[in-house]
Amino acid sequence: VARIMSMDADFSHHPRFIPAMVEKSMSGYDLVIGSRYVPGGTTPDSPFSRRLLSRGANAFVQMTLSLPAKDATAGFRCYQRHVLETLPLNSIFSSGYSFLIEMLFLVRQSGFSVGEVPIEFVDRKMGASKISRQEIYRALYTVLRLTARRWLRLTARRWLRRR
């Protein structure tokens, strides 16, 4: 089974976690996320304000979209190839952090399994953060848009079951 990895290019994701992610993928997960927020995961260099924003965003995503991942905004991912071949990638509207949330949403809506492995997420060694007020608004819009889509789908299913 072929796998496709994604990771930040600013050295905040260390390649030493790739074997654990591939191993978890081999145990039956279609998507494996390198997570800061599962037991054993850490963010040693992140300032409190960044951790608070990230944890808050992930809690909001879990609450509104019922996604199984504790780190829905993580870019360190291992997809089984068939997942990416199956998803309607041309229909993705989002970019940035929102893209990661939308991808996870599509993975779950398509019935694929999601697992997480703990990683150490260190502050970038190069470049600057993409988190801006505009990016936060875009992510909020994406979550609300996907929440509406989820509720419409659930409502339609309930309505069809009653008939």
Task: Summarize the helices and strands and which ones pair or pack.
Blueprint: E1 3-6, H1 18-26, E2 31-35, H2 48-65, E3 77-80, H3 81-86, H4 97-109, E4 114-118, H5 133-162
Helix pairs in contact: 2-5, 4-5
Q: What is the helical fraction, as a range of percent?
A: 40-55%
* Alpha carbon gap, first and last residue: 41 Å
* Integer average pLDDT: 89
The largest β sheet comes out as:
4 strands, mixed
According to DSSP, the number of beta strands is 4
Q: Gist?
A:
Helix content is 47%, strand content 11%. The protein has 163 residues and is α+β, with helices and mostly antiparallel strands.
List descriptors.
163 residues, alpha+beta, 4-stranded mixed beta sheet, 5 helices, 4 strands, globular
Textual characterization of the structure:
Helix content is 47%, strand content 11%. The protein is built from five helices and four strands. A four-stranded mixed beta sheet has the order 1-3-2-4.
